[in-house]
């Protein structure tokens, strides 16, 4: 099955009105691409970026997080229905920084996925193992456990509306990318795991790789049969570098 590639930039907690306006302006100058290009600013800049991109269907918007609650006394949280007021298509869920720094459990992540699917957003479900887990041979078991929490709550068909981002924790922000072969091995393992529940869902689901993706490493990654794009952190803050990655995706 041909799956469209997605190249998504996770800007994390970076940027200002000035720098983001400049970055988006540069991205909008790029030639159109066969891949889907996504950018993920912090909440305060969603409106700015959606306004800047309004005349151009080339760039889709992702939020970096969402509350698992619908509304109410949850100071500092942002609900899925609030995101409906912006042109948001995707929402990152379960990023390793959320899991490790803010205590998000597999169960909370699954609830967030549920709140997004109920509102017709596409969750980008981030999964991945730590270095210790990799060295203990637990890479796939960890990824399967993180996916299973969502499967148990929502069933396999939900994955027709979910993008998976495999982001090994040891590769995030370290400059130490998984090799294309290492990433491919995990991606195909994730797809095989989903195939044990539904072959058609497994064939359809887009699995992105994230973790120190650079223009120089992206071509090899994208040549792999089960790598359907990238979730890019640091390199997505540089328009030239990010656009090189988009170009490598075809
Ligand atoms: O966490 C990431 C994307 O969500 C990856 O970050 P880096 O590309 O900076 O390693």
From TrEMBL:
Enzyme Commission identifier(s): 5.3.1.1
Keyword Isomerase: yes
PROSITE patterns: TIM_1, TIM_2
Domain of life: Bacteria
Compartment(s) where it occurs, according to its Swiss-Prot or TrEMBL record: Cytoplasm
Binding-site residues for substrate, renumbered to this chain: 10-12, 173, 212, 233-234
Keywords, in A-Z order: Cytoplasm, Gluconeogenesis, Glycolysis, Isomerase
Main location: cytoplasm
GO-annotated molecular function: triose-phosphate isomerase activity
Annotated catalytic residues: 95, 167
Involved pathway(s): Carbohydrate metabolism; erythritol degradation; Carbohydrate biosynthesis; gluconeogenesis; Carbohydrate degradation; glycolysis; D-glyceraldehyde 3-phosphate from glycerone phosphate: step 1/1
Alphabetized PANTHER family for the sequence: TRIOSEPHOSPHATE ISOMERASE (PTHR21139)
Family: Belongs to the triosephosphate isomerase family.
Name of the protein: Triosephosphate isomerase
């Amino acid at each position: 099955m041909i799956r469209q590639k997605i190249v998504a930039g996770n800007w994390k907690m970076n940027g200002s009105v000035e720098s983001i306006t400049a970055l988006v302006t540069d991205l909008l100058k790029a030639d159109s691409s066969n891949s889907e290009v996504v950018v993920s600013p912090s909440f305060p800049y969603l409106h700015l970026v959606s306004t800047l991109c309004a005349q151009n269907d080339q760039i889709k918007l992702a939020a970096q997080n969402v509350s698992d609650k619908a509304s109410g006394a949850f100071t500092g949280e942002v609900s899925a229905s609030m995101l409906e007021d912006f042109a948001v298509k995707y929402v990152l869920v379960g990023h390793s920084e959320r899991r490790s720094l803010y205590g998000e459990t597999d169960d909370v992540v699954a609830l967030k996925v549920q709140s997004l699917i109920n509102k017709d957003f596409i969750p980008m479900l981030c999964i991945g193992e730590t270095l210790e887990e990799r060295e203990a041979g637990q890479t796939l078991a960890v990824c399967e456990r993180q996916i299973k929490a969502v499967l148990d709550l929502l069933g396999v068909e939900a994955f027709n509306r979910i993008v998976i981002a495999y982001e090994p924790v040891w590769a995030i922000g370290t400059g130490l990318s998984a090799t294309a072969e290492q990433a491919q091995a995990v991606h195909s393992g994730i797809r095989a795991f989903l195939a044990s529940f539904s072959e058609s869902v497994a064939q359809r689901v887009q699995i992105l790789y994230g973790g120190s993706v650079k223009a120089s490493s992206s071509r090899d990654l994208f040549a792999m049969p089960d790598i359907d794009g990238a979730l890019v952190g640091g390199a997505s803050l540089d328009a030239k570098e990010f656009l090189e990655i988009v170009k490598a995706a075809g």
